[in-house]
Description:
- By secondary structure, the protein is of the alpha+beta class.
- Helix content is 31%, strand content 32%.
- It contains 4 helices and 11 strands.
- The chain has helices at 70-76, 82-89, 111-121, 162-195, and strands at residues 4-7, 20-23, 26-28, 33-38, 42-47, 55-59, 63-67, 99-100, 124-136, 141-149, 155-160.
- The strands form 3 sheets. Strands 1-7-2-3 form a 4-stranded antiparallel sheet, with no helix packed on it. Strands 8-11-10-9 form a 4-stranded mixed sheet.
- Strand 10 (141-149) and strand 11 form a beta hairpin.
Amino acid sequence: MRKRKRLTASEIQVNQQFVSYTVGNSTCMPWMDYIKEIKDDCIVIYDKTKPNLGSEEIPKTAIFEVELSDEEYNAKYYDAAKEVFDILSGSEYLGDHGYHEMWNAWIGRSCQEMYNNLREEKLTLIGWFRLSEIKHGWFSDCDIGIIAEDENGDRFWCHWEKTAIDEMCECYKEQKTIKNQKKEKRYKECHLIYQK
């Protein structure tokens, strides 16, 4: 599940989608509602999938829950996901693989997402290994197994693609470069201000 953040009426923007809003002790969870307009006394919301239903006005005291953007999500969990990156970009794990498990929803599309999935499912990432024979699927060929351990110490592995893991690790490295460039830029800006 994608992580969320809470925004006040002054923080939310026109055309921004939200997951829910709370006014007082009451929470409303519309399906695909967006902010249509922000007025002085209220906020106008509407459902893009059902424009014929019109719009609804809610008080400006409402607190909105929105999903983090990919950029916010990756930045927030970048440091925590380093362990996942280290394991996936490391060498093949030669120890006990455990049993084969079909359930692989805990494997994410980024190191940050996998970190959160592991944490939510109370799993520990152990490593990966090459399969002796490739499993051919509808959309891809799985050539590795990814190993995890549950809170009881039981190990299991799931089929996955090495190319997908390599792409995840490449994206993580690119994010590090971008993060370092932003730090360097901020440092230079602060340094210039200090010199004045």
